[in-house]
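Thread title: Can someone regenerate the structure for this chain?

I was given the following input by a collaborator and told the matching structure tokens would be attached. They weren't. Posting the sequence so someone can regenerate them.
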Amino acid sequence: MPGLVIRWQDVSGLRRFDNGIKALGKDGRKVMQRALARSGDMARTQVYRALTAQTGLKRKVIVRAVKIKRPSWTDLTYEMKASGGDIALKYFDPRETRAGVSAKPFGKRKVFPSTFMKGGSFPNRKGMVFNGHVVKRAGTGRFPIEIQKSGVIIPNEMVSGATADTFQRVVRENLPRRVEHELGRLLP
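Best answer:
Regenerated them for you:
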């Protein structure tokens, strides 16, 4: 499962806080854990926004697909991992037209020729077929029918493009500020 990770050891620019963290003794880990958790949560919000725009999916689908592991005092790592494969066109605001179904994978509306969602002849269509999935006939007869996929794979999209850049930028900007804030709370 590909993902985005913040590790305390990997972040440059935090060496200037070494003396303050050492002065706190065992409370130094508390500073690091709190700063990572807060910075990670801020990055998570921005990743959800960027991934929503990049894939064309609704936010609730992204939230369901991305799993978060927050840092603990023993493991100073914030992880965002995504699961899932090629997503069905059903989740990309599909609309039936005479030429086929129109959907918005990657945020751009496109017509998928010879696909359908409802039964009957156009334009007097009956109810939904296959629970709202976009389907296409695989042969010359009525069956077999195949559910159509979009080409959007959340784990791949999460570690590339604007989403990965957003994650790195937010962590780089916020983590030193959060460490400084947490040190200020605990040091006299």
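The helical segments are 18-23, 28-55, 59-65, 154-158, 161-186.
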